[in-house]
Amino acid sequence: MKKYITPTRITSDEIKLIREITGMTQKEFAEFLGVSKRTVERWEYSKDEITGPITLIADLIIKNHVLPQSLEVPDKKYKLRLWYMYHDFVCSIIDVDEMERKVEVHNFITNPLYRAMGVNTEPTFEEYEEFIKSRCFPETRDKLKLELKKLDIPFYDPIMIIEKTQGRMADDDFWIKIER
Q1: In 3D, which of 174, 173, 159 has the Cα closest to residue 98?
Q2: Is the dihedral of CA 101, 174, 28, 11 positive or negative?
Q3: pLDDT in tens, 53-97
Q4: How many Cβ atoms sit within 10 Å of the Cβ of residue 24?
Q5: CA geometry: angle at 149 spanning 158 and 131, to 5°?
Q6: Dist. CA 152–CA 170, nearest whole Å
Q7: Residues sharing a CB contact under 8 Å with residue 110, sequence separation 6 or more, in sequence order
Q8: For 5, phi and psi rounded to 5 degrees?
Q9: pLDDT at 58
Q10: Which residue of 142, 157, 167, 180 is surrounded by the most CB atoms within 10 Å?
Q11: Going from the N-terminus, what domains does the chain have, and what CATH number goes with each?
Q12: CA triplet 171, 173, 177: central angle to 5 degrees?
């Protein structure tokens, strides 16, 4: 049987310490953890030891102080933002300025197989376009006009297709959410 060094319980003082290390308010800490502010308050004023998933998260933050900052959604730099997802996990956020042909990628996962652009952290606009096309049916598809009509799209445009299909493919669990 495997054993792990993760704690099974923490104290209210340790919760306060974690918040101090991260520089978060109770509300911000609650949002980061996906719990209510009231839950954080209860943890911080509890005389009992606290158990559950918070113990692992606290341990990870102690060992990696920049973890919360590394998971922050960056300010939107350009008009178009694409969220590259695996199931409901954010893998990459891609900000795009189509007029200026600029692309900025923010990766939230270390495994390049789950990143939008793989190992390429500074793609060109052309590489971005190739990525977008890879999440659509090909322009050479048989009966293309029928497929476009089904989607109510007047012509082949990868972004318009992704807005309708979310870039979902039959052979994987990745998808794209577009934010304008």
Answers
A1: 159
A2: negative
A3: 999 999 999 999 999 999 999 999 999 999 999 999 999 999 999
A4: 17
A5: 15
A6: 20
A7: none
A8: -90, 5
A9: 95
A10: 167
A11: 12-70 (1.10.260), 80-179 (no CATH)
A12: 120
Global pTM value: 0.89
Please state whether 52 falls in left (phi above 0), alpha (psi between -120 and 50) or beta: left
Residues 99 and 67: their CA atoms lie apart, in Å, by 34
Convert the pLDDT of each residue in 10-47 to its tens digit: 999 999 999 999 999 999 999 999 999 999 999 999 99
Q: H or E segment at 80?
A: strand 80-86
Distance (Å, rounded) from C-alpha 157 to C-alpha 29?
A: 41
Tokens of residue 180, six digits: 């304008």
Average pLDDT, the chain: 96
**Cross-strand partners of 84:** 92, 176
Whole-angstrom CA distances from 73 to 92, 133, 140 are 10, 25, 36
Residue closest to 116 by CA, chosen among 137, 89, 138, 143: 89
Question: Using one digit for the tens of pLDDT, what is the confidence trace for 129-170?
Answer: 999 999 999 999 999 999 999 999 999 999 999 999 999 998
Tokens 């954010």 correspond to: 90
